[in-house]
From TrEMBL:
Name the record gives this protein: Caspase family protein
Domain named Peptidase C14 caspase: residues: 17-268
Length: 284
């Protein structure tokens, strides 16, 4: 019988000492992780976490995924969700052919670079299915990006707004000014992360990775009062398990309900597995 493991990460804040005084406050990311963990538990997954804010450190996330890789074999599935800020650092190993920037998950104590995430995926056995939901900015793919639609000034304005009527437009992106300050201060550490890793080669991942993300690479994801816009819409489509379609069908239905400036993406990497995409979501 196949095994299903799930890991759920949600950060409503980060450690200001790690981010040049910025606390990265958001409203709905922890609830996203809690709701995804509840959904996974109801579907029969063995749930880790959720890892919320202070618990969502780079060391803990890395160790949790390494432990999952050690447990799962061909035919098993990992369900991984992230809800929080997205960030960027300069690409040093030339695996980003567009904007020369690597995307990151903004974890509590530091950013987890996408190179690190793909290296972790590379530790899973052939035949393992990895389903990733990432409700953050710049989350369309973890392999390539398009030019920014929003200026640095607009990114900062949308994040820092205090107007209650603007909360729904608050975005899950680290402000450009903070990104620059953090990279200047911690450049040696982030450069070392990339310099010790080869450029991403998705063909070398033996597992089959399927990602449904909160937006395209050149878009931003909105926070919310209860859930993020993407996560809340996905839960609405899922309807407590009444949804009977495939992963592709789930993506199509979510896209139909989203605004034009936030279009969830469907992305695959690793070993091709067409049967995976046709399965009903949460199938172990």
């Amino acid at each position: 019988m196949s095994i299903g493991l799930s890991v759920h990460i949600g950060l409503n804040q980060v450690d200001p000492e790690a981010y040049d005084g910025w606390s990265g406050e958001l409203g709905a990311c922890e609830q996203d992780a809690v709701d995804m963990a509840g959904l996974a538990d109801a579907a029969g997954f063995d749930v880790t976490g959720p890892l919320l804010s202070p618990a969502a450190t780079a060391e803990t996330v890395t160790a949790t995924l390494e432990a999952a890789a050690g447990r799962l074999a061909e035919g098993d599935i990992l369900f991984l969700t992230y809800s929080g800020h997205g960030g960027q650092v300069p690409d040093l190993n030339h695996d980003e052919t567009g904007d020369r920037l690597d995307e990151t998950w903004v974890l509590y104590d530091r950013q987890l670079v996408d190179d690190e995430l793909f290296e972790l995926f590379g530790k899973f056995a052939r035949g393992v299915r990895i389903w990733l939901l990432s409700d953050s900015c710049h989350s369309g793919t973890v392999a390539r990006r398009l030019p920014e639609m929003l200026s640095p000034q607009e990114l900062d304005r949308r994040f820092s707004t205090a107007d209650p009527q603007e909360v729904g437009r608050r975005i899950r992106a680290m402000p450009q000014s903070v990104q620059a300050a953090v990279y200047r201060r911690d450049r040696d550490a982030y450069d070392r992360i990339q310099n010790t890793r080869t450029a991403k080669d998705l063909a070398k991942i033996d597992a089959s990775v399927l990602e449904i993300s909160g937006c395209q690479d050149n878009q931003t994801s909105a926070d919310g009062i209860v859930n993020g816009l993407f996560t809340g819409t996905l839960l609405e489509v899922w309807r407590g398990g009444a949804f009977a379609g495939s992963y592709r069908g789930l993506h199509r239905e979510v896209v139909k309900r989203m605004p034009p400036d936030q279009t969830p993406n469907f992305f695959q990497a690793g070993a091709p597995n067409s049967a995976f995409t046709r399965q009903r979501p949460f199938t172990i």
